[in-house]
Every structure is written in structure tokens, then in C-alpha cells.
């Protein structure tokens, strides 16, 4: 029988730059417990977590909600924005008020932003658009739609190359409407992993939180990597990383709960969601 020390925990890593601070100084080889990293776009990580192919992962907030019976949230870790997020963008030919009644192309790379758009369009702006899902290529999207939703690095690059489209930041639109911040990604653990390997999960959580704090104390390595790998200026990336929030305190939790409530009202989620956060208290109880 495998001992906990030899069991490997599979950890999902989001490819997008918005999650870099939590992962930049996360080094599995330095951990006592065995960790295997799996790097993918959010949609694939979400699927693997839902299917049990990963034990711990960064996840789209909406995907967490879909499988919340199987997950617990890791404490004080998220990708949130209290206003503009700069990488969840709707590009449209006409002003937003007109675009929300046209055809909108949706990226196929994440469910959180797609459903945030539906909430904003249908509840806030009272729009009645037609949607279709496709690859995140703005040129292709706009050949068939009046507006296109992009997220992550696709959205950032498209904003740099904007060819006269109106650009709506969904984080800012959400803040304008609700007054709350929006949490786009969370870190979660499958419940069976939390129960069977609590010491390993505790070590992983501490390593993530340490990476977050170290990154936040000096953004220069992240900025240099982003310029080198994606492009743009140091000024842009400093503003981008400084703008995002990687904590998951009461304000972020309240904003996310409101998002889930609206998603439930629109029938996007089958049931109401109660946030459940993993704690070292779990580990204490196991040891008693």
C-alpha cells in the first residue's frame, strides 16, 4: 500500500500570466511530498479536476461551482480584480448598448468569463444576444459576430492590436453594476485528497502562499518574463500585475457568492453554492 509520503499529488497550473505570481516560486522539487505539475489552459484543467485527473489545481471560478460537492477552496488564493481586470475583454463594432442585442462570439477557453458576460448582458444590460463558441481568434470571431469575448493573454494581445473596436472590461463593468470585486480563478483541492493526504495539501498551500507573497514583494522577475515571452512594455506589465488581487478575503468571497447567486438565477448553475474553504483545522482534527 502506498504511504502518503510516496503518493504523488497532481497539481494543475494555468498557462495564463494572470496566475503567474502564485506559481512563479512554487517549486515541486523542493517539497517534501511528491508533486506532479500539469500545465494547461483553464478549460482543460477544469475538466481534469471535475473528472478526478488532478488533486489540486487553479480553476475557473465557475468550474469550481459546477463541481463544488467534490472540492474545497484553498485559503487566501485567487485571481481577482476590484475593477478593471485588463484581460477579460469584450471587443465590439458598436457601443456595448447595441452590441448586447447582436451576435456574440465566446472564447472556448474558460467558463467563468463567458458566464460573467451572460450575467452582465442579460441581467444588467437587459440584452438578448445570440451566442456561439469558438477558438479565441478575434479576427475569425469578428467575421461572424458583432462582438467577441477574449480572456487571458489572447485578450491582452488583442487589446494591443485593437483595430478600432470598442473594448469593454468585464471586471470594470461588474464593479460598476454591483460595487463588488470579481474572482475569476480559485485554487481548489478534491475532497478525497484533502482527507487522505492532509499534510501534503498543507505543504502545497503554504508553498503557493509563499510564492504569492514573494512575487508581490518584487514584480520585476514576472515583468521581465512577460515582456520576453509575450511582448509589451515593462510599464504595461507592472500595471497589470499590480492591479490584480491574489488574496481571497471576505471582499473577494462576497463578490464571488454574488456572481454564483446570479448564475443560479439565470439557470447557469443548477444549485446554490456555499463556499467551503480548506483549513489546517482539518489537519488538526486528523492528528487528534
Secondary-structure content class:
alpha/beta
What percentage of the residues does DSSP assign to strands (E)? 15-25%
Global geometry:
globular
CATH superfamily of the largest domain: Periplasmic binding protein-like II
Give the H and E element order: EHEHEHEEHEHEHEHEHEHHHHHH
Low-confidence stretches: 1-5, 283-288
Mean of pLDDT: 92
Count of individual domains: 2
- Number of separate strands: 10
Q: How far is the N terminus from the C terminus? A: 23 Å
Give me the side-by-side strand order of the main sheet.
Answer: 2-1-3-10-4
Keywords: Lyase, Menaquinone biosynthesis
Pathway: Quinol/quinone metabolism; menaquinone biosynthesis
Function: Catalyzes the dehydration of chorismate into 3-[(1-carboxyvinyl)oxy]benzoate, a step in the biosynthesis of menaquinone (MK, vitamin K2).
Pfam families: VitK2_biosynth (PF02621)
Polypeptide structure, described:
It catalyses: chorismate = 3-[(1-carboxyvinyl)-oxy]benzoate + H2O. It comes from Paenibacillus terreus. The chain is of the alpha/beta class and 288 residues long. It folds into 2 domains: 9-80 and 182-287, Periplasmic binding protein-like II (D-Maltodextrin-Binding Protein, domain 2, 3-Layer(aba) Sandwich); 88-178, Periplasmic binding protein-like II (D-Maltodextrin-Binding Protein, domain 2), CATH 3.40.190.10. 46% of the residues lie in helices and 21% in strands. It has helices spanning 20-23, 42-51, 61-66, 96-99, 111-124, 138-144, 152-160, 170-178, 191-196, 198-217, 220-229, 234-243, 250-265, 280-287, and strands at 9-14, 35-40, 56-60, 71-81, 88-92, 103-107, 130-134, 147-151, 166-169, 182-190. It has a 5-stranded mixed β-sheet with strand order 2-1-3-10-4. A 5-stranded mixed β-sheet has the order 7-6-8-5-9, sandwiched between helices. Helix 5 links the parallel strand 6 and strand 7. It starts with 8 loop residues before the first strand and ends with a helix.
Amino acid at each position: 500500500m502506498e504511504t502518503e509520503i510516496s503518493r504523488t499529488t497532481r497539481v494543475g497550473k494555468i498557462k495564463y500570466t494572470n496566475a503567474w505570481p502564485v506559481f512563479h516560486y512554487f517549486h515541486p522539487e523542493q517539497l517534501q511530498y511528491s508533486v506532479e505539475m500539469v500545465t494547461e489552459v483553464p478549460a482543460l484543467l477544469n475538466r481534469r479536476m471535475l473528472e478526478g485527473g488532478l488533486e489540486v489545481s487553479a480553476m475557473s471560478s465557475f468550474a469550481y461551482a459546477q463541481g463544488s460537492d467534490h472540492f474545497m477552496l484553498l485559503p487566501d488564493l485567487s485571481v481577482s480584480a476590484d475593477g478593471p481586470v485588463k484581460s477579460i475583454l469584450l471587443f465590439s463594432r458598436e457601443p456595448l448598448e447595441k452590441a448586447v442585442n447582436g451576435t456574440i462570439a465566446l472564447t472556448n477557453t474558460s467558463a467563468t468569463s463567458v458566464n460573467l458576460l451572460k450575467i452582465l448582458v442579460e441581467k444588467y444590460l437587459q440584452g438578448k444576444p445570440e451566442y456561439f463558441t469558438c477558438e479565441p481568434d478575434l479576427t475569425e470571431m469578428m467575421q461572424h459576430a458583432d462582438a467577441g469575448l477574449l480572456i487571458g493573454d489572447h485578450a491582452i494581445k488583442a487589446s494591443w492590436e485593437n483595430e478600432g473596436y470598442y473594448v469593454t472590461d468585464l471586471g470594470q463593468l461588474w464593479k460598476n453594476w454591483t460595487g463588488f470585486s470579481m474572482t475569476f480563478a480559485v485554487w481548489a483541492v478534491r475532497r478525497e485528497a484533502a482527507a487522505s493526504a492532509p499534510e501534503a495539501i498543507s505543504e502545497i498551500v503554504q508553498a503557493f502562499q509563499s510564492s504569492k507573497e514573494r512575487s508581490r514583494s518584487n514584480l520585476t522577475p514576472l515583468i521581465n518574463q512577460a515582456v520576453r515571452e509575450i511582448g509589451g512594455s515593462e510599464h504595461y506589465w507592472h500595471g497589470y500585475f499590480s492591479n490584480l488581487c491574489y488574496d481571497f478575503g471576505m471582499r473577494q468571497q462576497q463578490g464571488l457568492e454574488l456572481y454564483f447567486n446570479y448564475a443560479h438565477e439565470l439557470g447557469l448553475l443548477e444549485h446554490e453554492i456555499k463556499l467551503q474553504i480548506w483549513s489546517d483545522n482539518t489537519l488538526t482534527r486528523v492528528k487528534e
